[in-house]
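Journal club prep — side note

Before the paper discussion, L.F. wants everyone to see what a predicted structure for a comparable chain looks like in token form. Sequence:
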Amino acid sequence: MKETLKKISKLFKLIFGYGIMIVLFAGGLTFFGYVAALIIGGDTATSICTWIYKSFVPIMIKTTTILILFGLLTMYLAGEKALVPSRKSMKHEGEK
């Protein structure tokens, strides 16, 4: 059972990693879209910004939310604990 959970966790980690990379790249493209609109100006810039904000950004937000779910499932299935100090880090900081 643990082996199956580890395999599922690896698959979810792969999906999470590539998905977040793609969404971050898409976020960078929105930045360049806004910069291009700033340079162009006028009604064309308004339509570019409106298209980015109304059709592209909501898709990115929904995709990111789903990918975060994959990341949380990865941690849960692998038995990882986030934001919890381990004994090694406590000794490293001088605590015993």
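L.F.'s comment for the group: DSSP finds three helices and no strands in the chain. Keep this in mind when we get to the figures.
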